[in-house]
From TrEMBL:
Name of the gene: mbpA
Superkingdom: Bacteria
Protein known as: Mobilization protein MbpA
Length: 98
């Protein structure tokens, strides 16, 4: 239970910046400052546009894997390059989970 009250001074710009960063992460200013002080993980929430881009990348990754599988017998070199691209996209997508 939180009973203690702590104040600190900052400039107007710093306060606005704290407010913006807290809003992006879905936290109150006090919770954001608390997590920052204790070096807890602060995760920025995705916007709707970012979520759409994530979904689009996931579709691209799947499509490139399918294309790679389709060309595996006809042109193995092309298939390997396409699969490598799909794997790069996959690694990038997995980076969002951390």
């Amino acid at each position: 239970m939180k009973k203690e009250f702590v104040q600190f001074r900052c400039s107007i710009y710093e306060k606005k910046l704290l407010r913006v960063k807290a809003k992006k992460s879905g936290l109150s200013i006090s919770e954001y400052c608390r997590r920052a002080a204790f070096e807890d993980r602060i995760i920025e929430r995705f916007t709707k546009e970012q979520i759409e881009m994530y979904k689009m990348l996931a579709k691209y990754e799947l499509n490139f894997k399918r294309i790679g599988n389709m060309f595996r017998k006809r042109n193995p070199k092309l298939a390997d390059e396409v699969v490598q691209l799909a794997n790069k996209i996959r690694r990038h997508l997995l980076g969002f989970k951390k």
